Amino acid sequence: MKLVINASKKILVGCIVFFGIVAILKGSGLIESNSYHNIVRGVYGYFDLQNSVKFNTDISKDNIKITADNEVLVVVLGESTTSQHMQLYGYNKKNTPLLNTIKDNLFIYSNVISSDVITTKSLPKIVTSIENSGKKETSTNIIEVFNKSGYKTYWLSNQRPIGFYDNQISKIASVSSYLKFLNHVNEVQTTSYDQVLLPSFKSVLKQNGKMVVFLHLIGTHFDYNKRYPKEYNKFLSKSTASKKEKIINYYDNAVLYNDFILYTFIKELQKQHKKSALLYLSDHGENVYDGTDFFGRSETILTKSMFEIPFFVWVSKDFQLPKDFEYKPNRAFMADHTYESIGHLFGVIYKDMDMRKSIFSNTFKERKRKVIDNIDFDTYFLEKHE
């Protein structure tokens, strides 16, 4: 009897502590670092994705159409970076000075949004055929398509794997020819700067043969002031500055460092003198006091900046663009159709790819961009929900 009472007391105390912590965190205004929304809502979505998605294991080269003879494609997957805080997109601070020097050589898309505000839900929809509009019986991993097409595939990550096979992202990455995680620490706590990827990236580019390289950044993830070395501490706050001003400056410094990383990737590609391209987009955006008085992300308090993401492409001079390529910088696009766009851009078309979904196609068809809880992104914020 005593054991039963003690056990009951422990459960009661545990419940009180748990709900007390949630209440405190919810009232703190600090969304990102505690991620209570991930606990309450995000976890369900994550496990739903884990348990419901089955990947196509019967990909045949006979069902892949090769339309170009390109050599190197680099897909840079950013983290927590909103286009609202980038000079390249009209932000009022000079925090993308390097990319701005080559902006005339970039295809910059200004109306791209993420499908979700949590990485474990948004990123799988970028590199597979999973989409927000509905579930398929099976989905296709873009890495597998390239594997079957004769390309060597690489996944280099500055994010922790979280146990190779109990995370959907790690499962997707695990089919790569070469897989390397350079960070095994919690995203909030880590100070592993993205330049840690550069030596491996340079080594990969020296390999022979056609390749597709995925680079998964830690980007501008909270804690923002841990995302960059001290030489990128350009935007300084006075000792009397408010918490809000300090956090905004931390974030803008992180974007400045991200600018250096992306520019360096492009310069390394140029050195190879191959038919190459680099696509960069972020998994989702971030609210940094942009729409309401908090920083981070939430599935219950939505702002445009949580969804608005950078999306641009650099190509070498001899890169073979698709014959039906059309550059429309203001095209309304949601990142869950990046799967089709990658295949289209590089000229590796699997049978389930619909070119009307590719942001690069002259047959692109706009759609209602439905995000969390079937919200129409393009009308929701016109009604001033922020």
Q: What Rg is obtained from the alpha carbons, in whole angstroms?
A: 21 Å
User: Would you tell me which CATH topology applies?
Assistant: Alkaline Phosphatase, subunit A
Number of helices: 11
Determine the mean pLDDT: 88
**Count of structural domains:** 1
According to CATH, the homologous superfamily is Alkaline Phosphatase, subunit A
Specify the helix fraction band: 25-40%
Task: Briefly note the structural class of the backbone.
Answer: alpha/beta
Low-confidence stretches: 24-44
End-to-end separation in angstroms reads: 54 Å
Element-level helix/strand string: HHHEEHEEHHEHEHEHEEEEEHEH
Which percent range describes the beta-strand content?
Answer: 5-15%
Which oligomeric state applies?
A: single chain
> What kind of sheet is the major sheet?
7 strands, mixed
Global morphology: globular
CATH architecture: 3-Layer(aba) Sandwich
The top-level CATH class is: Alpha Beta
Give me the side-by-side strand order of the main sheet: 3-11-8-2-7-5-6
Number of E-type strands: 13
Subcellular location: Cell membrane
Pfam family, one: Sulfatase
Protein name: Phosphoethanolamine transferase
GO biological process, one term: lipopolysaccharide core region biosynthetic process
